[in-house]
Amino acid sequence: MRHVYLVTFFVVVLGVSILGLRGTKFTSAPMDVFPEWAFPGMKHQPKPYAQGSSDFFADGRSDRMPVAGTVQRGMLRDDEHLDHGKTATGAFARGFPEVLPVDFKLMERGKDRFTIYCAPCHGALGDGNGITKKYGMGATPSFHDDRLRQIAEGEIYQTITNGKNNMLSYADKLVPADRWAVIAYVRALQRAQSGTVADVPAAHKSELGLK
Amino acid sequence: MSKIFPKSANSLPLQIIIYLVVLTGIATAGVTYYMTPKYTRIGYAPVQPVPFSHEKHVSELGIDCRFCHSNVDKSGHSNVPTSQTCMNCHNQIKTDSPLLAPVRESYASGDSVPWVWIHKTPDYAYFNHAAHVNRGVSCVECHGKINEMEVVAHNQSLSMAFCLECHRNPETRVRDPKDVYDLNSQTIAAKAGVEAGVKFVHDWKIKPPQSCSGCHR
Known about the structure:
The complex is a heterodimer.
Chain A: H1 2-19, H2 80-84, H3 104-122, H4 146-150, H5 153-162, H6 176-193, H7 202-205
Helix pairs in contact in A: 3-6, 5-6
Chain B: H1 12-34, H2 37-40, H3 54-60, H4 65-68, H5 83-90, H6 101-109, H7 129-133, H8 139-143, H9 160-168, H10 188-192, H11 194-203, H12 212-215
Helix pairs in contact in B: 5-6
């Protein structure tokens, strides 16, 4: 009987050395301990996954483009000012679309989106000194010159939507309302950078050590 | 008449029974330890077509999760970034790197980069990313400290027990919505005590379902 226990012990040691312990890094596909052929269930369903692959469609993708001539729900872009940054005459629109009141909420949203999508290159202050500059990104323009202070809001909208020079389009990341929120925040940054002592309300001057 | 069995054979049935009990114990321990996602999935770190380092892009450059996973707060599915997202910077940075060749080819041809899917739940379990991140459940709760991973590895079991643990006690896991994408941040409970967590769960009307149909369809 002692031999049986010895053999069992060695089998266990062998098993543990082959299987290893929990949490070890591995690169091969994870083991399926309840495979579908032995334990039929619904773990693997013949359905398309978002960003998945498909043997059915010629391009091998499960994601489909909208059929020509159709518009997805909520994706109709027919407001010249809101969706294209243009006026009725086709010039770049100045000011913000009427449906989007520029308030604190829009500004907060703009700050949030700007920090995520724009700050890596344009910098938190909009001065073109984002982190990417250190890694070889070409000259990112500063927002703080007269040309960009005077530029129409619609033209900024166009740049976000379609990109410009080395900057690619951010239309897939920012829906129209978010693009306008970012523009509002860019305007705030421009105003802040050109601020003077005269802009500080009298009541707050002493807090900053000003007269 | 000579004896067929020696006297020691008398104890054999008992010894066999004891051995079978020991064997059952070993088998139970083996199944408990190995036949669970805690063993089969945690640590899964496949070789990706491009050796993208989250550690470099998040911790060193400070890029937000949402720069690339831009739909995580809008959709149930958290997207793998388009190759255009990579090219936003890599059309100017490391443009000749052979490691980035699959991204450049994908951007030119329109075909996808064949990224390997790591975090996968069974097809009958439906997880909605937006519902979680917009209610204070941080990426780190399920994905671990991705910001410190040179190579992404499966970090939590993502088993039903794992989900339920949090669905039963959300107050210990929620974060201030501002901290959701900061993977080094603390939960509300860790910062201000469990009562603050309970208050957040109440104020934000967080009612994590524990019924089957909450997650299974």
